[in-house]
Amino acid sequence: MTARDVLWSDISGVYDAILAHPFLAGLADGTLPRESFRHYVVQDAHYLRGYAKALAVCAAKAPDVDATVMFAQHAAGAVAAERDLHAELMGELGGSVDDEPVAPATQAYLSYLLATAHGGSYAEAVGAVLPCYWIYARVGEHLLAAGSPEPLYARWIAMYGGDEYRAVVDAVLDETDRIGAGLSVPELARMRTHFSTTSRYEWMFWDGAYRRETWPV
Fold it and tell me: Which is catalytic among the residues 82, 124, 132, 175?
């Protein structure tokens, strides 16, 4: 089995739970409250700022130039997406990202992600950032097949379900397999742990957006 096969087998149940979540079902049938989608967009903008930093750490730790260039480009792309797509969506949804706090699930996810990227090995860092790439691609493909009657949601789906994004994810999966082929059993176990943990944070991120999560105190 390749590393990607092992990693995905670990989170198949988590992915099923993500697909079953009412946030994603509401995107597909257009019933998701716009307030929940707005919460998601705001938190995603906050998240991508931190995610870009984690990708930059992956670039710095990469053992070869090609991987360094790839992750550096993706870090820049994450910042560009935060500035462009989210600015466009917020123009329709109203308000400003900078006026809204980082929600609990977002803060917890970013804290774990950045701690792992900085404190772990290159393989651990890649394992931690991979779910955001891969789950979004799988979710995008799933939702693109279903479509959405809500133009705002359909625009978001088209970005993550398209061939351009899939090519980005495929490149990272190829790097994942390359890394995994050279790992010891304990090293692969650590990579799997981080991958599973941040996959669970992906579910928590959707759930927090659906509930429009705020700090309880």
Answer: 132
Give 161-214 pLDDT, tens digit per residue.
888 889 999 999 999 999 999 999 999 999 999 999 999 999 999 999 999 999
- Count of beta carbons in the 10 Å neighbourhood of residue 85: 17
Torsions phi, psi of 63, nearest 5? -80, -10
Of 82, 124, 175, 202, the active-site residue reads 202
Please confirm, yes or no, whether 92 is among the known catalytic residues.
no
Instruction: Measure the N-to-C terminal CA separation of the chain; round to a whole number of Å.
Output: 46
CB contact at 8 A, 62 and 74: no
Q: Is 212 left (phi over 0), alpha (psi -120 to 50) or beta?
A: left
Asked if 196 and 131 touch (Cβ cutoff 8 Å), the reply is no
Q: d(Cα 122, Cα 112) in Å, to the nearest integer?
A: 15
Active site residue 213: no
**pTM as predicted:** 0.94
